[in-house]
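Thread: Modeling a multi-component assembly for a lab meeting

Hi all, long-time lurker, first post. My supervisor asked me to bring a structural picture of a complex we are working on to next week's group meeting, and I have zero experience with this. I have the sequence lines for every component (297 residues in total). Could someone generate the structure of the whole assembly? Inputs are pasted exactly as I received them:
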Amino acid sequence: MAAFTVVVASGKGGTGKTLVATCLARRLAARGGRIAYLDADVEAPNGHLALGATITNTRTISRSAAKIDLDSCSACGDCVGVCAFGALCLVPEGAMAFEEHCRDCRACELACRRGAIIRQTIPVGEIADGTVGDLRFHMGKLRLGERRGVPLIEALRRTVSDRDLEVVVVDSPPGTACSAVAALRDADLAILVTEPTPFGEHDLNLAYGLCRTLAVPAVGVLNRAGLGPRALAKVVTRVGLESWAEIPYDPAIAEAVAANEDPERASTYLADAITILCEQLLARLPHAPAVAMGAVP
Ligand code: SF4
Ligand code: SF4
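Re: Modeling a multi-component assembly
Sure thing. I ran the full set together rather than chain by chain. Output:
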């Protein structure tokens, strides 16, 4: 049976998404479940720091892009007209391809009658595999200067597709761009982490809209509860989401994270909220959990 995939996402950065994702994954693994954590925040992955992961293997992930064989090109321009991504242009010598804009749709290959479109392989980043106790750990890291995170995130999600896992926790890129779509697509559940600020409410609305578009069920978690205007204290339910947990504002959490210590041990508020979150999630799984939620490991 396929693993239950829960994506921890946020409409903006800095809401505590990685805090929730790493605590959730660690707690689920501690209760004896077969759990994997995927760090899909590929532009700035830092789940390995929060979890203290031991990396055992790294591998390069590449994508394919169009390239022009000028020896075969007649400069007819047919390929340029079919590229919907502006990745081709025509100069007197023939067609030119801009690999950074190429989405590898291969429409130009179909349009070219001279077989002048060939493929090139471009490294986009690497995937690191590792462990944190019984928790499987996989992290995507985008190559410096590479703007396309989607192929890397898709490869990251494939790393656990054939595993005998109970739950896969995906730490999504923030926002609602293509990389967030790649992380959320086909997920069983999205946990949207937000904060009680006007920006938090605005971006939570965007993230919830993306989940609805992708038909991914979503629930909310409010971080730093107690801060901000009173009107935003119930921001999660204000936007129409079911609220699964609130993490009260506690400076001890940030201090523990900065010191590379387990924030759940530093803050009972956080530990209690993660317990509630885990219980909510376990109740949502297709099969009843074998082991009940315990305290902080
Ligand atoms: S369609 Fe083929 S032959 Fe024509 S410009 Fe493009 S690459 Fe060159
Ligand atoms: S493969 Fe698609 S996106 Fe890339 S250059 Fe050809 S038509 Fe454009």
